[in-house]
Amino acid sequence: MLKRFISYYRPHWKMFAIDMCCAFVISAADLFYPVVSGNIIDEYIPQKNLRMLLIWCALLLGIYILRSALNYVVQYFGHMVGVRMQADMRRDLFSHLQSLPFSYFDKNKTGAIMSRIVNDLMEISELAHHGPEDVFISIVTLAGSFVLMCMRNIPLTLIIFAFIPFLVFFAMRKRIKMNNAFARRREEVAGINATVENSISGIRVAKAFQNLDNELEKFACSNNSFVDACRQSYRAMAEFFSGMDLLSNLIMVVVLLSGGLFAIYGQITPGQFASYIVFVSMFFNPIKRLIQFVEQYQTGMTGFKRFCEIMDEHPEDDDPGAVEARDVRGNIRFQDVTFTYEGDKNQILHHLSLDIREGDTVALVGPSGGGKTTLCHLIPRFYEINSGAITLDGVDIRHLKRASLRAAIGIVQQEVFLFTGTIRDNIGYGRSDAGESEIVEAAKRANIHDYILSLPEGYDTYIGEHGLKLSGGQKQRISIARVFLKNPPILILDEATSALDNVTEQMIQSALDELCRGRTTIVVAHRLSTIKNADRIVVLTDEGIKEQGTHDELLERGGIYAGLYRSQFRA
Ligand code: ADP
Ligand code: MG
Questions:
Q1: pTM of this prediction?
Q2: Closest-lying ligand to the alpha carbon of 104?
């Protein structure tokens, strides 16, 4: 996994190398101060050498100006490396998500996927640039100080360095505890958000059922857990900071004591003593960075693991040797098809065979849950069948390129999804290269043109979150216009009018009748009046196809269909 992570550095290696070089010089520059201050105390002050004092101070000033310039580069390039890597990963993730099959989206909620694209990648980006920088700078500073200090006095250096592992160990432990507490706190906040969202969305139901106490109680519960999580996190934070404070000051005292003793007994000079004090006061920064790195590594890698999990999901590849579906006529045949949803035990379709001839309208009826929608979704290969075959004009759909197969099929569903954007964008979604006149023609055929013109902004009317709210029937007509524009040889109407009232349904029905003309159509409807004229009616239940024939044949037969029909028309 680390290798995969590192591979994302490759396109930005130049920027990254510059960043690291600057980081090296910056940390090396920091080592000058203690050395110079020691020299000043030991040599130039006793000699009253004003010239050397000025030279060294000027030199230090120059070094610091350079350091600041390099710091600018590190801050800027370092962050840009992180951001670019994040953008690359997000691009890969997004395009991979687009290629994943329906089954993936059945299992994973939109919110969870969003949080991966946004939050996880942010963490990864932080790790990507701060990680190597932190490790590098800390090691250079600590190792450099160690060497320079040993050059002055080895025993004293060892005494001081002996404390560092304790400091690091303590800091790590407390930091981890603190982070866990903060993570829990974030979860609690998410819990509160979810509770509020659910309650507010359902406020009408809650009021109607007078269930407000219940809602308050649920909320109080989330709210209390939040306070509890905060208490834990602040306690951990207090332990960390007060402990670190004590330990670091303890080290300073140890330096004064041991260094003072060494100086009194003439083992080191006062200048060297001063250098030690400065060196040690510089330690805390690299140690802090190392600890920060460990934390960032944990969260960043957890995020990266989740990123990899999605990237490793199998996309919908075309089979090798798949061909384009050309000049589709629309003969669809299910041959002994068995289908089970992934991770589900129930067989939805069991050795089902069905023949749909070019240009025919075949209606699917039957109880809810009988598998009508499932059957429709198998034709564009939204899901993979377990056994048997589905053929289009005699060719197994698995041997066709998915894009060309789907281009041949238009779907109108009960639930219409319109994208945020203008009405024109939404109709134009049917075919990206369509011109204005074609869009208008499609709208006319879907009986929505006049309505669109009645809007002040016409086809430019914005729909979506902050745009125009359309009624169910209007939305459905836009979705029908979308399919008119696409003009596919095969049409699937899955309960296209089921959510609409009778009057609206009739208005839409004429558009649908027009849409079906000259196409192979599979129509699912629970209002049987709409499918009376189908060439064939197929009754599908969870036991498979129970009856098929024309409306008259099925009525005569007096089976399930006849029963359904009579119950709907008794009124
Ligand atoms: P119909 O359209 O006839 O009402 P469906 O095809 O929607 O029936 O559903 C048939 C069965 O498949 C139902 O039992 C339903 O619970 C199940 N089902 C539908 N969609 C999924 C899915 N995405 N994952 C798992 N099971 C599903
Ligand atoms: Mg259905």
A1: 0.80
A2: 1
